[in-house]
Specification:
- The structure is a homodimer.
- By secondary structure, chain A is mainly α.
- In chain A, 62% of the residues lie in helices and 2% in strands.
- In chain A, strands 1-2 form a two-stranded antiparallel sheet.
- In chain A, a hairpin with a 2-residue loop joins strand 1 and strand 2.
- The longest helix of chain A has 32 residues.
- The first copy, chain A, is globular.
- The N and C termini of chain A lie far apart (52 Å).
- Chains A and B meet through helix 3, helix 8, helix 10, helix 11 and strand 2 of A and helix 3, helix 8, helix 10, helix 11 and strand 2 of B.
- Strand 2 of chain A pairs parallel with strand 3 of chain B.
- The structure holds potassium ion (2 copies).
- The site of one potassium ion has 12 residues of chain A, from helix 9.
- Chains A, B: This is TrkH family potassium uptake protein.
Chain lengths: 418, 418
């Protein structure tokens, strides 16, 4: 990042650690911060962050969507993203149509959300024109791309009672988190759910279930907490509970003080953040589909059935292996990361686990310890953000695309398990 | 439990909750307690506990070994536990030979350990004859069966500097935790490791690796903690670190104060307790073999290879499914149990997670909160102990023994994962 990106040049340039952490957090659309965005960075610095977020968000959506097309073709299945599914490679035409589709959809949704926010900032908060526009645009970009960077030091806590700010932001987050393949299919067949693919049904079913469960649990757990929901009326409690549930998947804005939430609410959010949103979108985590696929595999195993059938379709056996590998590796990364940070710092398990899951799921929520961690811990979080952002999609696609060669087989043995 | 089992009848009979919790803890060889064993129970009550432990230990070893034989036969593999592998059912002869083998081995090892302990109690601690014999026998039974019940209120903390007590107990725990199939094979081929089955190699490799890693980590983490290892000399620190590492898999005695250990050491022990010991023995947890099988599956997936080869043998594909189902269900039980207990009580995540993993792994270590939990939490822990004790083996065998019928197949679809 350039020197001009700092708000107060007299205070010195950003260190390489601050610059690396912030840039990684922006490109990975995580939103964890070591320096306070509005105070530390200049307008130019903020613009750089917004551009990095947009590049990161577009990049991940485009790349993941193209990989999904490629997978569908390789496996000889009907591609739902583009019309011509006859070729087995991804051509320049596909790239063009996906990039255009993703860009158009991003701009349309970000524009709409920015319009509502700018109007609200101008009318109700009487901000001056350029400030309102910049804040509305930045927040809309940050929300749709699930980045969670905010232009206030206290994130969105200043708007905790304003549904006209919280609800547009929540909608942008949810839509961005569904993923491009789902949005593309919904645009075509929104009125005919029978036409939806298993993928779209899984993402929508999972997202709705997690949002409802998350809202109920978080609202109930924080109902009387004087530092979070306690001060609000019933409507406000529900709005903020819903907003908190949405933000764990995996946007990372907060309208109530995360650090003041109870252990129970933090752990609940750990689970939601770990699962995350839909694939090929801007959300992080192991993804809703991975979670539901594992759920259906286990139900099938316990029932003693042989094929995993969901919504009247059989789940491809290759997907079992992908989901299991992604989930096990994710658990390994989170457990190892937590273990190392616990040993290297003096924060509690609550705080460390939350921080690691937040980095892995590229969520960006924090109990407030990020800035106080030592350099080594920051580097580890940078690594976890990258792994969390790129790991699941890379492993999922690599497993799906690979041709397996069977050279010879060794004699078989079966150890006892369990 | 009978009225005479209480040490002080004037104080009233045990409540159903105390009796149920203690009996479950004994039969499942867990060792979590809600009342102080030496103070609350009479000599008769202690004898009942010892008998329940022995029944639980023998039962689980016999049942698991018979299931292993049955599995080996069904799958047409050479059975390593009994000579005649030609019949496909488990006959009365097998049951006889397994029960006798398990009983003989249990008595031999328990006798040897009891002998060392009784001698030590008589000679060094100048206890009177019957007290020394009862304490030595009880401790040996409790150790070999990985039960962790102790006849001192502070478990083995009174013997924290005495290797003549700690090392025999640790050996009994390790041997009991290897599992009967491994012991049976070692007895036959101890000098020719080339002859060992994949199962035996996995258990021994995993146990040694976890013991070494556990000893190093726990010793290092608690080195300067004045309430645990800080007061001891280097030799004592190493002895107690080793003892603590052994006890997490999954015996549950403690010679240092678990409640005073650091967050880091508690989390390290959570991991060790979750993995546990070898199958068809007295240890709990998901089992060393399950853990290593998953490890090798992931390594194979990441390398892009098609068959999981371990020690020059191919891992049976059916085992993949068993290991994955056992591990995922175990994670689900621990996460759900932790979530519910967190919400229902006011203890920290550290303490609750440790308690739940300890119950699931039938370990019996505790940060000291067991007795203070409400009735509902005790019932949940009872359920988790049963699930932890019987779940992995039941699910593993059920999956292995089931014949799958393929009636018809639905059209295939593949959602995006990761
Ligand atoms: K985020
Ligand atoms: K135990």
């Amino acid at each position: 990042m350039l020197p001009v990106s700092v708000a107060d040049p007299a205070a010195g340039l950003p260190t390489w650690e601050e610059a690396l952490f912030t840039a990684t957090s922006a490109v990975c659309v995580t939103g964890l911060i070591v320096v306070d965005t509005p105070v530390y960075w200049s307008g130019f610095g903020e613009a750089v962050i917004a551009v990095l977020i947009q590049i990161g968000g577009l990049g991940i959506m485009t790349a993941a969507s193209l990989l999904a097309i490629l997978m569908a073709r390789r496996l000889g299945l009907r591609s739902r993203l583009v019309a011509s599914a006859s070729v087995r490679a991804v051509g320049i035409g596909d790239v063009r149509s996906v990039v255009l589709g993703v860009a158009k959809m991003s701009i349309a949704i970000e524009g709409l959300v920015a319009l509502i926010l700018v109007t609200r900032f101008l009318v109700t908060y009487e901000m001056n024109g350029p400030a309102a526009v910049w804040k509305g645009v930045f927040t809309a970009i940050s929300a749709f791309n699930n980045a969670g960077f905010a232009l206030d030091s206290d994130s969105l806590m200043g708007y905790a009672t304003d549904p006209w700010v919280l609800i547009p932001v929540a909608c942008a987050v949810i839509i961005g988190g569904l993923g491009f393949p789902v949005l593309f299919e919904l645009r075509k067949h929104i009125r005919v759910p029978e036409q939806w693919s298993m993928h779209t049904k899984l993402v929508i079913l999972g997202s709705v279930a997690l949002l409802v469960l998350g809202t109920i649990t978080l609202t109930a757990l924080e109902w009387d907490n004087p530092d979070t929901l306690g001060a609000h009326e019933v409507g406000g409690k529900l709005l903020l509970g819903f907003f908190s549930a949405v933000m764990t998947r995996t946007a990372g804005f907060n309208a109530i003080d995360t650090g003041a939430m109870s252990t129970q609410a933090l752990f609940t959010q750990d689970l939601l953040m770990f699962i995350g949103g839909g694939p090929a979108g801007t959300a992080g985590g192991v993804k809703v589909t991975t979670f539901l696929v594992l759920f259906f595999i286990i139900v099938t195993e316990l029932r003693g059935e042989t094929a995993v059938n969901i919504f009247g379709r059989r789940l491809s056996r290759a997907v079992h292996r992908e989901a299991i590998t992604v989930a096990l590796l994710a658990v390994a990364v989170v457990v190892l990361g937590t273990w190392i940070l616990l040993i290297a710092t003096s924060f509690s398990l609550d705080q460390i686990l939350f921080e690691v899951v937040s980095a892995f799921g590229t969520v960006g929520l924090s109990t407030g310890i990020t800035a106080d961690l030592p350099t080594g811990a920051h580097l580890l979080l940078v690594a976890i953000m990258f792994v969390g952002r790129l790991g699941p999609i890379t492993i999922g696609s690599a497993l799906a695309l690979r041709t397996r060669k069977l050279m010879f087989e060794l004699p078989k043995e079966r150890p006892i398990v369990g």
